[in-house]
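Q: Got a minute? One more chain.
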Amino acid sequence: MMLNTSDNTKNKGLACEANPSELLNLNNTSTSNQRQIILGALMVSAQSTINLRHSFGVMMPAARVKELRDIGYQIDTVRVSESTPDGIKHKAIAKYVLRGANHD
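A: Always. Here it is, folded:
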């Protein structure tokens, strides 16, 4: 999946359109690639902060989700209790749910 920038987001360097034919590079830690990773994961299912960090290598999921929201993606946050892979339980972890995109 590749995200393309439109004229209204080029100044921010943000992506706004998904193209599922492109593959993501999980070794690329740029913020734009992290947004692509999150968007691709959310298109499959809801994702928690813990899962985005441990399974996808996105260290600051909340920041990347905010950037996606800023360019029109409708992403809800639900609070859940979840354990990290090492067994530590955390309360009120953000779980993100993609509702859609609102592009003009």
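A: The beta strands are 2-4, 17-19, 47-48, 73-83, 89-101.
Q: Perfect, thanks.
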